[in-house]
Please model this.
Amino acid sequence: MQPTTASPVIEFRDVSYRVSGTQVLSGFNLQVQSGETLVLLGRSGSGKTTSLKLVNRLLSPTSGEIRVKGVSNREGDVIRLRRSIGYVIQDVGLFPHFTVERNISLVPRIEGWPGDRVRARVQELLQTVGLAPDTALRYPYQLSGGQRQRVGVARALAANPEILLMDEPFGALDPLTRDELQHEFLLLQQRLHKTVVFVTHDLREALRLGSRIALMEAGRLVTVLPPLEFLRSGDPLAAAYVRAFGGSLESAANRGTS
Model:
């Protein structure tokens, strides 16, 4: 089946997921539009990471359907699907015995890109994520946590995927580095306009980075709202999040839209 031009880039249709007798997701319906950063927000165990892994078929739903660019993600080759989607996780997952260049270029090399194109792409991406050209020759153990996370983002972008899945990518970093990378992510997204699904439990991060915030609780979707509307929502759970975080949250939401 061919997608229509009006199709969302990612769509969950009445998706449920059950494992070992536990209902992780129930009746989950959500659309992610082209070029937006959709943030999945919720406490631990709410189903955020499970939802993310269902998109690139690291997990398969018990029932329902996930459509990617208008087509069920159960159709076609799963390896091809995963290579077409960038994936960034909290602990980065770089291969320790590969140089930065080899880590970044993994998918392009598998896809058969010529060597000169691969090398040019690696240098382009190092510049894009704010790393020096000679970083390409270093190994992950020689980098700081923030540098490794930048390499992880560069690797996810290497084959120029339309979709990025990001699972708490900045959660393990110190506050200053996290703030810096959030800022760089916003600048990057303004230039590249990727379709991003971003998992976090941090409301300030959600407000700053998200085009919309999808609040999850116990495997269900509670509400989906733009950041400023989320702050002013009458939904009891959304209001509880706002009270719990306190402080000047509107400034975080405005920074994401400025």
